Amino acid sequence: PSVCNRLDRNTSGLVAAGKSLTGLQELSSLFHDRSLHKFYRCLVNGVIKNEKYIKGYLHKDEKCNKVIISADRTEDSQPIKTRYRPVCDNGKYTLLEVELITGRTHQIRAHLASIGHPILGDFKYGDPKLNEQIQKKYKVRSQLLHSWKLVMPEKLAQPLDYLSGKEFIAPLPAAFKKVLKGEGLETAESNS
Hints:
Elements: E1 2-3, E2 12-13, E3 17-18, H1 21-32, E4 37-45, E5 52-61, E6 66-70, E7 78-89, E8 93-100, H2 107-114, H3 128-138, E9 145-151, E10 167-169, H4 174-182
């Protein structure tokens, strides 16, 4: 058995693993060719009212383990694509459902921060003062980013054919739910 994907440190949620070498290879290829769909939930600063598909370029600075997002391609940059949909807002923060089209290091965190909507609790890309307030108020120790759902392709070959069209959901962790409740963002959809 081995893990097929990874999550940023302090990100909660689903991680996929293969039970056999063949299963691992097939599952890894679904991640690689992007036929498996990955959805996240996150709480961001600011109000977002409309669904949006955003693109850009990501350059990783290995020395400080941080990425830089730009609208234009630069040397050693990689294209990134992210789609998000607001679930609900309270006039101050927005709970988003994010579909990761490409899967690059820190992509969701850096991409949302680059458009002025950093994830709460993210000390690397977010607003330090706001993060300190959220940490103090709710005792949150990580960014409010959760790998929420994996959707398998409709027609899979052996040995993964039994997974065709299936969805896997990881409920939000208690700390994330506590913040949503405290900020009046608790809805039926936000709790799934």
